[in-house]
Amino acid sequence: MTHSSYSRENCRALSILGLSAVEASAALRLLRKDADASAEAVSRQIAEVSGVDACAAAGARLGLEKIVRVSPGTDSSSPAVICAAFRAIFGAVAVDSGNVDSAGDVFWKVHGGSAAAAAM
């Protein structure tokens, strides 16, 4: 994995796609559970599972800081770097599978141990 600090050829676009897939999957899960959920509730659930802190924690559990390439002045263990790498995984799954549903499915398998995911 390559961070934008290391090279112009990096995982930034995959990270953006991965974030979108995760957010859509989180919203869909909540609305399937509670069709009358408020916009605020949906936004809160999305933030809980896709925010930088949650993604960085999940990415750290996977050891992503050990495999992401960064420039010498960048800390590969910073939450922003780990989170971007974590999200990029799901972007790559979406591209490889040709759909975001697969990315959401993989996300819940990887991230499913968290309290926020369990609540959904």
Structure overview:
With 120 residues, the chain is an all-alpha fold. The chain has one domain (12-119): Ribonuclease III domain (Ribonuclease iii, N-terminal Endonuclease Domain, Chain A, Orthogonal Bundle), CATH 1.10.1520. Helix content is 68%, strand content 0%. The protein has helices at residues 12-33, 39-50, 52-62, 79-97, 100-111, 115-119. The radius of gyration is 14 Å and the shape is globular.
Total number of distinct structural domains: 1
What is the tally of helical segments?
6
Task: Indicate the percent of residues in helices.
Answer: 55-70%
Structural class: mainly alpha
CATH topology, by name, is Ribonuclease iii, N-terminal Endonuclease Domain, Chain A
CATH class category label: Mainly Alpha
Summarize the structure.
This protein is an all-alpha fold and 120 residues long.
Which labels suit this protein?
120 residues; disordered C terminus; mainly alpha; globular; single chain; 6 helices; Ribonuclease iii, N-terminal Endonuclease Domain, Chain A
Q: How do the strands and helices of this protein lay out in sequence?
A:
Layout: H1 12-33, H2 39-50, H3 52-62, H4 79-97, H5 100-111, H6 115-119
Helix pairs in contact: 1-2, 1-4, 1-5, 3-4, 4-5
